[in-house]
Design goal:
globular; nine-stranded antiparallel beta sheet; 7 helices; alpha+beta
Length: 218
């Protein structure tokens, strides 16, 4: 399971940096390639997975520099603290939160819960990245102001939610939508809905969360 996770993240990062527009793109692509190589090495016959993930983590420092970060991270808050950010929303039934905290190859904590209303469903997830670029980098392109992409099936575009940068996606054929917000350059908040009329309900649910309190979590 760890092997698949490592390779999957590396490939996602390769795809995310491929759309860069600056000189940093080349550095990011190189760092991502190094991570992919380290991840694949972890799957080589007889190699220790933990060692492969350690090298994978080291490669992240190169990506952090390419993405403009200083590589400094902080200890993520407890998942119990993150659970307090999940709102109760009138008319929606919230399921029991599922949470976890990980320490390797990078530290993060997260919580998620499912909200249902008739046939509609929204999965809300809050992740404390601890400023780990591994988690933030895949969002970087779509968070850029003015980013947008439209097709016959729907669209994705950069948005601002309660003063925080984010992006939304909409699939008109499936009626599935997403709203993703990066709070204080650290907390990744996602709303993924199915059987929706449009994305307004995702914005309404985001409005029920007090992003201003995230920095005070412990």
């Amino acid at each position: 399971m760890q092997k698949l996770f490592t390779v999957g993240v590396a490939l996602a990062l390769v795809a995310s940096v491929a759309c860069g527009k600056s000189e940093a793109e080349k550095q990011a692509e190189q760092a991502a390639a190094e991570m992919e190589k380290a991840a694949k090495a972890a799957e080589a016959a007889g190699q220790d997975v933990a060692k492969g993930m350690e090298e994978f983590g080291k490669a992240m420092s190169g990506l952090a520099g390419a993405m403009g970060g200083d590589g400094k991270t902080v200890d993520p808050v407890s998942f119990q603290a993150l659970e307090t950010t999940l709102p109760q929303v009138s008319g929606w039934e919230r399921g029991k939160p599922e949470s976890e905290r990980m320490t390797s190859p990078f530290a993060y904590s997260q919580t998620e819960a499912t909200y249902t209303k008739g046939d509609a469903r929204i999965d809300v997830k809050v992740v404390d990245s601890g400023f780990a670029q591994m988690l933030i980098a895949p969002w970087s392109m779509m968070l850029a102001s003015g980013y947008s992409r439209e097709s016959s099936d729907g669209y994705e575009k950069a948005v601002t939610v309660n003063g925080q940068p984010g992006f939304e996606k909409w699939d008109s054929s499936s009626k599935n939508g997403e709203l993703n917000v990066l709070v204080d350059k650290r907390f990744l908040v996602s709303f993924e809905g199915s059987d929706l009329a449009d994305t307004r309900v995702l914005h309404e649910m985001a409005g029920k969360m007090d992003f201003g309190t995230f920095v005070s979590l412990k």
